Each structure stands twice: as C-alpha cells, then as structure tokens.
Amino acid sequence: MTIPLRVPDAAELKAAAERLRGRIRRTPILELDGQEVGVQGSVLLKLELLQHVGVFKTRGALNTLLSTEVPPDGVVAASGGNHGAAVAWAAREVGVKAQIFVPKTSPQAKVDRVRSYGADVHLIDGYYPEALIASKEWAAERDVLQIHAYDMTSVVAGASTLGQELVEQVPEATAVLVSCGGGGLYAGTALGVGDAAQVHIVEPELCPTMHAALEAGEPVETTLGGVASDSMAAPRAGAIPYAVATSHHARSFLVTDEAIIAARKFLWERCRLLAEPGGATAFASLLSKAYVPGEGDTTVVVISGGNHLDFPSPSDPARRGSPNSPS
To answer: Where is this region: Disordered (predicted)?
Structure first.
C-alpha cells in the first residue's frame, strides 16, 4: 500500500489534534532558570520522553493508524527501536497486527520494548537501510500498510500535535529547539508552531542529515555515526521534512558527541530526567553554546525520547561510523 508524499495542510493538522486528544499524553513543561543553563532568558523543557512508549513518535504512529484504513495484513515498519515501539503500541491500541524490522545493531532494550507491545520482530543483519529494504520486500508480497519513520504525511501531522501543544502551553516562546534525524519531529513541530515561534534544528556532528541536505539544496546521503546514531542516523532527510525546512528557512545547529553526553548528564543530575542521546541533543546546543538565545528570549527545548538507558562513551567504536536507524 503506497501513500503519496506531501506536506500536511492546516485541516490535517487540526484533524490530527482532535483525533489524538485523550489518546496520547499532553506532556508537561519544566521551567529552568536560564542562568542555571548558562544562557540568557528563560528556558523551558517539553518533556516528550514522558509520552507513551517514551518517545514523540507515538503521535505520528497513532495518527496514521486512526486516519488510514489498515489492510488485512496489518502494518509494517523498519526501525532501530523507537519508531518500531511506537508503531507496535499504536497497532495494539487499534487492534491490528504489526511487523517490525529491526537491525541487529539496535540496543537490546529497544528490541525488547518493541516485542513487549505484541509486535512480531524481524532482526536484520546490517543497519537501518538494510532493515528498511527487508521490510519493503516483505510488504511487497502482502496487503499491508508500511509506516515510515519520518517521511509520511500522517506521521508528520501526528508530530504536529506536539507543536500545537507548545503554543498553548508556552505562548510567549520565541524559539523552539528540536533534535533532528530524518526530520519528522522538526517538520511536525514547525508546522504545529507555525508563526508563533522560530523552530530550530539541532543535529549531532556525526549525524548531520538535514544540515547536509540544506547545504546541498536537496536530501543527500551522508556519513553517519556517534553516540546518538541508534535514534538519529537517518540515511537521508525526508522529502516532507526537507520541504518544511526550506519553506520555513530553517537553520541547523551541530553539536559534538561530548556535548550530547554532557547534556544527558545535566538532565539526569539536575533534573532527574533520563533522556537518551537523541532526546538530549537539542538541549546540548544550549549547554555547548552552539545555539545562544538573546536577552529576554523564551526558549523551549524538546526532550524527545528516553529509551536508551546506558551512557555510551564518544570513544566507543561501536558508536562511530555506523549508519544505524532513524529510530
């Protein structure tokens, strides 16, 4: 079952919010003193790691299943863990079968989480690209709905509910920082926030997918690796997220592995938030001064996920140079 790629319109964003109301968590805001973070202005954290399944991707997965007629053979997805868990959870919620293709390089905790929601897990040699190919080959022989991790209209519309919530929760926000792998979270947040605030992209230096696309003038393949690769190493930026980024004149700020690890440590030690590396990447831009707010600014940082419990070292060779999953 093939669905055309296009940016969701205003009616679809509104419909997604109405469709998901009461079925997903309205995740809370935690306010920090800007001086505590070492920046000017106010800093607020949108705690999306408290969402069902521990990640923002639940929004897009459930919106897709609630807005699309699911074929007899159910749904299929390729994922390094987070998207797969979100699809598995959403499939269980609506009573359909899910098949999740996961690279063997994914953290075992994420694989176990996918299985815990009742999905059939197919472990694939290699990394995310191989898992995606395998899932498409499996789907080609069946009547099944393939749910892409970030490049799908209904997925982006679902993610937009996070941005819509932010406008209601923090109407004074001047900037929103979001981590970006394939770009689904960025695109949804930017569409949901609209003109209320500027939404900025933050990426690891070792997973600069959207940064490379914006520099090249189109989505391109790039070298991937680093501590956040299990959730942010998309092989290339999605067509929909790239279209949103260009139309919104987005900027991408890059952060080092060391900055991401420091951000995770800060969030745990100061806030008792156990964010995964990808979930802490946007916050790393503030601590490292990759992004510097102005005096009087109100900056919201989306803490997007919390499904990776260990603290990998940036020198760990398993975390470098390997194109893992877009989560």
So the answer is: 305-327
Q: List the Cα angle 54/57/63 in 5-degree steps.
A: 125
**Cβ-contact 54, 275 below 8 angstroms:** no
Q: How far is CA 192 from CA 12, 46, 135, in A?
A: 11, 14, 30
Task: Choose the CATH number for 58-146 among 1.20.210.10, 3.30.870.10, 3.40.718.10, 3.40.50.1100.
Answer: 3.40.50.1100
Report the DSSP pairing between strands 29-33 and 42-47.
antiparallel
CA gap 30, 42 in Å, rounded = 11
Provide CATH code, domain 10-56+152-319. Answer: 3.40.50.1100
Report how far Cα 20 is from the mean position of its chain's Cα atoms: 18
Q: What is the DSSP letter of 52?
A: G
Q: From CA 264, how far away is CA 244, in angstroms rounded?
A: 28
Domain with CATH 3.40.50.1100 in the chain: 10-56+152-319, 58-146
Q: Chunked in runs of 10, what are the mean pLDDT values of the chain (327 residues)?
A: 80 98 97 90 96 96 96 91 93 96 85 92 88 92 94 97 98 97 96 97 96 96 86 89 96 97 96 95 97 94 84 44 47
- Alpha-carbon distance of 38 to 288, in angstroms, equals 9
Cα(55)–Cα(113) distance, rounded to whole angstroms?
12
Q: For residue 307, give the amino acid letter.
A: N
The pLDDT, as a whole number, for residue 315 is 46
* Long-range interactions of 211-218: CB distance < 8 A, separation 24+: 211/252, 211/254, 212/237, 213/237, 213/242, 213/245, 214/242, 214/245, 214/246, 214/250, 214/252, 218/242
pTM over 0.70: yes
Rg (CA), the chain: 18
pLDDT of residue 308: 67
* Number of continuous H segments (helices) and E segments (strands) in the chain: 13, 10
Distance, CA of 107 to CA of 308 (rounded, Å): 8
